[in-house]
């Protein structure tokens, strides 16, 4: 998947990102981020938790974030500036397209608050030094990356000895929302197969042996399921891979998809169940 899909998706991320952010909260807790001096959020998208991190971190702690989608980076920076200019305002999501377009990623206010954000690919973080970070977090990103080996090698390189990595990837079989959307797409003939390759890591054992290869120790790995607050079929909840297909499809098929999907959502709600996504979460240490 290239960054253009995520650029186009960045507006939706103002709303949707609060769901997978629950995984990130668990990671932060398990990694004890409040003890860190430098944190990297790799593949940060709209930076949903950045304000929270700023409020909870040690005063001296620096937060660096990157994403390969420039639009995502701009959303995160705009959101952060909005927050820094008015930390007491409860609602910081209402930002206009113009504010996002004109945001200055090098604005001094960001630096004064020990916050740095840039457009960067997690497979090659040339902007970052060796042994720089106490914590490397990457929530729901590594499964999307072309060369996972390179991404984890980069994580290892930028972490200090004793530094910790925290990653989450979705479990394909436990991603109910994705599975339901796929089913509806197939029902109305929009696709014959999954529009993308699911990751080859599905179990704790696979995840642990994947990360062990790079020299990480003190590994903890667990499955975690989170609910999606999906109560209607707002466009915001269409995954980017599917959005692209819908945009090119005849209106009749699009309407059919929405009708099928609406029914699936209603069936789920009738059982008093939310849609859920299951993640494989892992934390580990770079040896001293
Ligand atoms: C599912 S979102 C997860 C974002 C965020 N970490 C969260 O917790 O919500 C995936 C993000 O990864 C970014 N991404 C995908 N591949 C990347 C890569 N190779 N380098 C940097 N960012 C990447 C996308 O642009 C998108 O913003």
Protein described:
- There is one protein chain.
- With 288 residues, the protein is α/β, with parallel strands linked by helices.
- The protein has a single domain (3-175, 196-232, 274-285), classed as Vaccinia Virus protein VP39 (Rossmann fold, 3-Layer(aba) Sandwich).
- 40% of the residues lie in helices and 22% in strands.
- The chain has helices at 3-9, 13-16, 21-31, 50-56, 70-85, 97-101, 108-112, 148-158, 176-187, 204-212, 240-248, 251-270; strands at 38-42, 62-67, 115-119, 133-139, 159-175, 217-228, 275-285.
- A seven-stranded mixed sheet has the order 3-2-1-4-5-7-6.
- Helix 4 links the parallel strand 1 (38-42) and strand 2 (62-67).
- Helix 9 packs across helix 12 (251-270).
- S-adenosylmethionine (SAM) is lined by residues 3, 6, 17, 20-21, 24, 43-45, 48, 67-69, 72, 121-123, 139-141, 144-145.
Q: Which short descriptors sum up this protein?
A:
288 residues; alpha/beta; Rossmann fold; 12 helices; binds S-adenosylmethionine; Methyltransferase type 11 domain-containing protein; Methyltransf_11; S-adenosylmethionine-dependent methyltransferase activity
Topology summary:
Blueprint: H1 3-9, H2 13-16, H3 21-31, E1 38-42, H4 50-56, E2 62-67, H5 70-85, H6 97-101, H7 108-112, E3 115-119, E4 133-139, H8 148-158, E5 159-175, H9 176-187, H10 204-212, E6 217-228, H11 240-248, H12 251-270, E7 275-285
Parallel strand pairs: 1-2, 1-4, 2-3, 4-5
Antiparallel strand pairs: 5-7, 6-7
């Amino acid at each position: 998947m290239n960054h253009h899909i995520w650029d186009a998706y960045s507006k939706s991320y103002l709303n949707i990102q609060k769901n997978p952010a629950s995984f990130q909260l668990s990671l932060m807790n398990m990694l004890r981020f409040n003890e860190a001096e430098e944190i990297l959020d790799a593949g940060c998208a709209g930076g949903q938790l950045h304000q929270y991190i700023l409020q909870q971190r040690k005063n001296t702690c620096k937060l660096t974030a990157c994403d390969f989608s420039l639009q995502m980076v701009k959303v995160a920076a705009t959101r952060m500036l909005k927050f820094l200019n008015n930390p007491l305002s409860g609602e910081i999501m209402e930002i206009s397209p113009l504010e996002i377009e004109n945001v200055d990623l090098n604005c001094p206010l960001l630096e004064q608050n020990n916050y740095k954000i840039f457009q960067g690919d997690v497979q090659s973080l040339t902007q970052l030094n060796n042994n720089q970070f106490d914590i490397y977090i990457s929530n729901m990103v590594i499964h999307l990356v072309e060369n996972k080996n390179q991404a984890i090698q980069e994580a290892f390189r930028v972490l200090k000895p004793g530094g910790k990595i925290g990653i989450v990837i979705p479990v394909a079989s436990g991603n109910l929302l994705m599975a339901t959307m796929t089913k509806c797409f197939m029902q109305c003939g929009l696709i014959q197969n999954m529009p993308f390759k699911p990751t080859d890591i599905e179990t704790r054992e696979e995840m642990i042996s994947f990360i062990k290869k790079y020299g990480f120790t003190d590994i903890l790995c667990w499955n975690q399921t989170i609910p999606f607050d999906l109560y209607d079929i707002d466009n915001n909840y269409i995954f980017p891979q599917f959005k692209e297909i819908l945009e090119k499809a005849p209106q009749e098929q699009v309407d059919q998809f929405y009708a099928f999907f609406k029914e699936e959502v209603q069936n789920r709600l009738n059982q008093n169940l939310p849609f859920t996504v299951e993640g494989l979460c892992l934390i580990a240490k770079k040896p001293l």
